[in-house]
Amino acid sequence: AAARTVLGTPDNATGIVESLRAKVTSSEAFQRKVAETCQQAPGHPECAAQAQHALFCQLLQRSPSEGASAMAASECGGSGSAVPSLLEVTMRRLRARSAPEDDLAKEMTH
After folding, report:
1. 102's torsion region: left (phi>0), alpha (psi -120 to 50) or beta?
2. 18 by DSSP, 3-state: which?
3. Tens of pLDDT, residues 64-102
4. What is the helix (H) or strand (E) element at residue 7, kind and residue range?
5. How far, CA to CA in Å, does 55 sit from each of 8, 9, 11, 14, 26?
6. CB atoms within 10 A of CB 57
7. What angle do the packed helices 10-25 and 66-75 form, to 10 degrees?
8. CB distance 7 to 16 below 8 Å
9. pLDDT tier at 107, thresholds 50, 70, 90
10. What residue segments make up the domains of the chain, in order of their start?
11. Is 71 exposed, middle or buried (0-12, 13-18, 19+ CB in 10 A)?
12. If you count Cβ atoms within 10 Å of the first and of the last residue's Cβ in the chain, which end, N or C, has fewer?
């Protein structure tokens, strides 16, 4: 309902969101941030898509605009409190991967 009030009709809101998403995600700074985030990820194409969505949602959520808040609620699944931050997702992935140093440390302690 909030998206409808702020952005007009649902079709208009969808068009605005897609236009904004295209403009933001095609920027050089945004692409650089996605590349940084996915540099260590083994499934790079999947990571890039997830990172783009998460970064776009974070930008919407941080915006002071009422319209952006409405877009974040409709595009990002609620108020955003349930959406993990990009840092959380990246750290989970890094922790899940076993580094050679970890194996060496285990050998040295036993």
Report:
1. alpha
2. helix
3. 877 777 777 777 875 545 556 666 777 676 666 656 666
4. helix 2-7
5. 25, 26, 24, 18, 13
6. 19
7. 90
8. yes
9. confident
10. 2-109
11. buried
12. C
pLDDT in tens, 26-46: 999 999 998 888 887 766 678
Distance CA 20, CA 31 (A): 15
Distances in Å between the Cα of 85 and the Cα atoms of 4, 39, 76, 81 are: 27, 17, 12, 9
DSSP string, 44-107: HHHHHHHHHHHHHHHHHHH---HHHHHHHHHHTTTTSTTSPPHHHHHHHHHHHSPPHHHHHHHH
Residue 82 tokens, joined: 């349930």
pTM: 0.56
Neighbours of 29 (CB within 10 A): 8
Tokens of 24: 């933001």
